[in-house]
């Protein structure tokens, strides 16, 4: 009998399991993959996410893999350019974009080192229930052996297509359709630093350095263009980069070498799911997902895995009823993530509303507010502060934005 079973052992599941094991609980973590293994990902870890790794004693391990530090960011939205970097957060003055083959292996090994029992290549097929509560899981190992495990609580950390969410019938109570697709791969021979460039015509390219002297290069367009793009993605990548910044298109064409296959992905829908119930909880993309455009998936997985570990501890220790503690987890997650969720939905269609156009256009003209923009991106400045109407009014006055463009609220 375990205290906790965690289904899914990547960026949400392994930290959750590790933190609970460090508190002395008996934890089982299962995953259908074996590690190291890849998964579609932005790779990007914001300073706020790196702060969690630092607190857990894992940041140095990520850095030691040779993943390059990034200390300058280049953002553009059509003709608006914002270049710079945030102030340090918890002493962290860089961001990192590790390969998931690297990061997830570190996380699962750290969970095992904390005492978590880990079973790889385990496919969960059903949940065990008793008197209306989830009390365990059923599944099969890689060799087909059927097994059943029991626990006081089962947590689904198994992504957007969570088997746990499906089996408990977790309802979506807030959502919006995904708008775009992404194609990315890894290239040698280029050294661009970090770029996040949205051009005219609803298209975007992004690039950042990662492990093994490679750069991840990604492009995005609306979903309806996905079928045509698939016919010749190499040409499509260059077409988009040429349109946004021909200098980088030329460099990729003549100096870049694609080293791996493309990873295509239609953006999953955006949603909040009911994330707790009798004997179960959801964390990471299993419970809450937003478009990868803002790159907050890994950081949020870390942040809310830690939050859930604290609330499960409250319940298991008897300090509070478990469902009361889990309700606090969902409420706090929703409150803290609301700003990122709304911002992501507003800009992930690869266009800017008049409000965001005004805000970012004005911020680009103010060195002080540009610094605040990167603080917002890093997780060091809350959206409530950055987008406060009184602060925007001061910004618009500072840069003498035309009165007709001084939008203070999104509506």
From TrEMBL:
The organism of origin for this protein: Rhodococcus wratislaviensis
Q: Please give the Pfam families that the UniProt record associates with this protein.
A: FAD_binding_3 (PF01494)
Top-rank taxon, per record: Bacteria
Q: Which residues form the FAD-binding domain?
A: 2-176
**Could you cite one Gene Ontology molecular function of this protein?**
FAD binding
Supply the InterPro entries for this chain: FAD-bd, FAD/NAD-bd_sf, Geranylgeranyl_reductase
Q: What is this protein called?
A: FAD-binding protein
């Amino acid at each position: 009998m375990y205290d906790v079973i965690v289904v899914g052992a990547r960026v949400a599941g392994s930290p959750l399991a590790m933190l609970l094991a460090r508190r002395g609980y008996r934890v089982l973590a299962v995953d259908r993959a074996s590690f190291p293994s890849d998964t579609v990902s932005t790779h990007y870890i914001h300073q706020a996410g790196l702060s969690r790794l630092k607190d857990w004693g894992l940041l140095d391990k990520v850095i030691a893999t040779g993943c390059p530090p990034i200390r300058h960011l280049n953002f553009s939205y059509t003709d608006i350019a914002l270049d710079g970097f945030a102030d340090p957060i918890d002493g962290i003055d860089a961001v990192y974009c590790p390969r998931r083959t690297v990061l997830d292996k570190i996380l699962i090994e750290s969970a095992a080192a904390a005492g978590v029992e880990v079973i790889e290549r385990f496919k969960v097929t059903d949940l065990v229930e008793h008197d209306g509560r989830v009390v365990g899981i059923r599944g099969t190992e890689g060799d087909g052996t059927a097994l059943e495990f029991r626990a006081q609580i089962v947590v689904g950390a198994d992504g957007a297509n969570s088997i746990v969410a499906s089996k408990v019938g977790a309802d979506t109570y807030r959502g919006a359709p995904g708008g775009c697709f992404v194609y990315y791969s890894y290239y040698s021979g280029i050294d661009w630093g970090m770029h996040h460039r949205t051009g005219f015509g609803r298209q975007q390219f992004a690039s950042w350095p990662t492990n093994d002297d490679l750069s991840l290069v990604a492009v995005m367009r609306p979903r309806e263009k996905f079928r045509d793009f698939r016919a010749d993605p190499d040409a499509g990548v260059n077409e988009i980069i040429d349109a946004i910044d021909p200098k980088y298109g030329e460099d990729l064409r003549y100096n870049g070498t694609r080293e791996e296959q493309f990873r295509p992905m239609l953006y999953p829908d955006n949603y909040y799911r009911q994330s707790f119930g009798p004997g179960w909880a959801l964390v990471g993309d299993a419970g809450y997902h937003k478009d990868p455009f803002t790159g907050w998936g890994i950081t949020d997985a870390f942040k809310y895995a830690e939050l859930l570990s604290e609330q499960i501890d409250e319940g298991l220790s008897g300090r509070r009823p478990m469902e009361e503690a889990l309700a606090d987890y969902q409420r706090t997650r929703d409150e803290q993530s609301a700003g990122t969720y709304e911002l992501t939905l507003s800009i992930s269609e690869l266009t800017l509303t008049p409000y965001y156009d005004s805000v970012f256009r004005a911020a680009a003209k103010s060195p002080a507010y540009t610094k605040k923009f990167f603080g917002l991106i890093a997780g060091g400045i809350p959206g409530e502060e950055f987008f406060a109407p009184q602060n925007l009014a001061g910004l618009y006055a500072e840069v003498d934005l035309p009165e007709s463009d001084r939008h203070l609220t999104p509506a």
